[in-house]
Design a protein that fits this description.
single chain, 212 residues, alpha/beta, 7-stranded mixed beta sheet, globular
């Protein structure tokens, strides 16, 4: 049986040589092996709490949606129409093979593509850390364009591990998000989650941002 280190090394090799879609074609998708299809407890807890006045109608986006579990959870919990996008056609096909949800759709898409769409809520979990750090400023600019004034961005910051010079996932700290999001956001929640999955304990932080 391969160790976690070996799996991650193989994953990074595939991404570097053949791209993200190849990881899905070869089923080298480490996060599913560690966490299964679990909704991360910090997302569940923050959505189900009354600490934020979440939108109950409108549109949500999950970039890098993978199999689409988070998109379906957000739709079920908040009643939003949720779009999941992924650069991998194989990931989108996997999402579409799951039981259909009337308020959820999936498509192959580039988060950075020009669009007139705007959303009431965006959830980023491991999308930010999948990007080379040089792309993070553009991530921040695109988030500002995509989230409506008064809308929310949920960032589950993971993995908060010792610094490395390679990825994905690339080295991350919570302030890296703040540096590229700029002054058009207000932090409404910023904390270490009370409950984390077993592979995330002491390695994550949840931050909720409101678009000003």
């Amino acid at each position: 049986m391969s160790t976690q280190t070996e799996v991650m090394a193989r994953f990074r090799e595939i991404v570097a040589t053949d791209g993200w879609d190849a990881t899905w074609k070869e089923q080298v998708i480490p996060w599913e092996g560690w966490d299964g299809r679990e909704i991360q407890p910090p997302l569940r807890n923050v959505i189900e709490s009354d600490r934020v006045e979440w939108p109950r109608q409108g549109q949500a986006l999950v970039p890098g949606c993978g199999r689409g579990n988070d998109a379906r959870f957000i739709a079920d919990s908040l009643g939003l129409k949720v779009t999941g996008i992924d650069i991998s056609p194989t990931a989108v096909e996997a999402a579409q093979q799951e039981p259909p949800h009337e308020n959820v759709s999936f498509r192959v898409g580039d988060f950075f593509a020009a669009t007139e769409e705007q959303f009431d809520l965006i959830y980023d979990y491991t999308f930010f850390v999948a990007l080379p750090p040089s792309m993070r400023p553009e991530w921040g600019r695109q988030m500002a364009k995509l989230v409506k004034t008064g809308g929310f961005l949920i960032t589950l910051v993971f993995p908060i591990d010792p610094q490395v010079d390679f990825g994905p996932p690339f080295f991350v700290r919570p302030n890296h998000y703040e540096e590229v999001l700029g002054s058009v956001w207000e932090k409404v929640i910023d904390e270490v989650p009370a409950i984390s999955s077993s592979t995330h304990i002491d390695r994550e932080r949840i931050i909720v941002w409101k678009r000003l």
